[in-house]
């Protein structure tokens, strides 16, 4: 079956940051935060200090995965330019999103450069308290559907067909959690597509909480969710992931298979469960019909991220800064 990994990260030079400070690679896939917290960021044999496009392609080829959507996150640090370089080098394998810190003075100029000059048609905002903007700008909480900076960004990207806003807002107990804001934005901007990461952080012990979030999105045609890393949320390591099956069944019931995108959140999620298991677990279930599974694995991501506008805009882009430098 054809597959697109709709949530994956490239790591060229680690530059992670969150409430623990900056992240520094130690080698052997290990890293340390400024506060002394140690993590194993890269699975064995992925790379000592990076997870390059070439390493990802080898991994995808082993699992028969055709393409991947490269997203950004504070854990690895924004890999915006390396993502663009990788898409240009391997246009048949990658599409991607850039990220911006909306608290930066020149945030709109950063957005403009990535959209107008580099041709991106997807923006990822990781606003979670655990690892995103609310983690290192925690004294100034904001709501996506009320913040003037977000409004300015959405007004700007509204001019560009095929644009996607992807959001990771963290767990229910974080101030950043805001499923209702995603529903409001999707209704306010019907010509844009919106993707929520990690199925709104589901916990199998609290399915009614998940239902309450997902029912706000029911019937909103331009609002999707990826189901990457949901195993990690419940600490699940037994294949084929019964807890994850339960939350995905509920998601299918409420928002439908045509609004779910499979992904892995590699490389970090592949330190808890193998990439092979993350790539194949859905095929070991009876959640979806064959056609629905094809949608979740491939067609939905193809429509949302690999739309013609996105593919063409990056293919035609030439970075004016690097051109002038040359």
Automatic annotation (TrEMBL):
Transmembrane segments: none annotated. InterPro entries: ACMSD, Amidohydro-rel, Metal_Hydrolase. Signal peptide: none annotated. Residues 4-305 form the Amidohydrolase-related domain. It comes from the Bacteria. One of its GO terms (molecular function) is hydrolase activity. This is Amidohydrolase. It comes from Vagococcus allomyrinae. The lineage of its organism: Bacteria, Bacillati, Bacillota, Bacilli, Lactobacillales.
């Amino acid at each position: 079956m054809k597959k697109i990994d709709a949530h994956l990260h490239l790591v060229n030079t680690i530059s992670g940051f969150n409430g623990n400070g900056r992240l520094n690679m130690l080698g052997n896939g290990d890293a340390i935060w400024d506060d002394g917290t140690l993590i194993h960021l890269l699975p064995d044999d992925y790379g000592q200090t990076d997870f390059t496009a070439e390493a990802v392609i080898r991994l995808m080829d082993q699992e028969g995965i055709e393409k991947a959507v490269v997203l950004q996150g504070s854990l690895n640090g924004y890999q915006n330019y390396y993502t663009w370089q990788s898409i240009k080098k391997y246009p048949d394998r990658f599409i991607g999103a850039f990220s911006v810190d909306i608290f930066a003075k020149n945030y709109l100029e950063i957005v403009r450069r990535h959209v107008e000059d580099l041709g991106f048609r997807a923006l990822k905002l990781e606003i979670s308290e655990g690892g995103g903007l609310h983690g290192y700008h925690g004294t100034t909480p904001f709501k996506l559907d009320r913040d003037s900076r977000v409004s300015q960004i959405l007004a700007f990207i509204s001019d560009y067909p095929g644009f996607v806003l992807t959001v990771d807002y963290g767990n229910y107990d974080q101030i950043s959690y805001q499923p209702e804001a995603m529903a409001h934005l999707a209704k306010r901007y019907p010509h844009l597509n919106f993707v929520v990461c990690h199925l709104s952080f589901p916990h199998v012990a609290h399915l009614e909480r998940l239902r309450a979030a997902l029912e706000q999105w029911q019937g909103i045609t331009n609002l999707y969710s990826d189901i990457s890393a949901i195993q990690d949320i419940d600490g699940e390591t037994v294949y084929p992931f019964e807890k994850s099956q339960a939350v995905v069944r509920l998601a299918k019931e409420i928002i439908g298979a045509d609004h779910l995108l499979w992904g892995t959140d590699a490389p970090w999620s592949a330190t808890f469960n193998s990439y092979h298991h993350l790539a194949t677990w859905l095929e070991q279930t009876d959640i979806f019909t064959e056609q629905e599974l094809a949608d979740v694995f491939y067609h939905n991501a193809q429509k949302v991220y690999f739309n013609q506008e996105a593919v063409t805009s990056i293919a035609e882009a030439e970075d004016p800064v690097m051109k002038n430098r040359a």
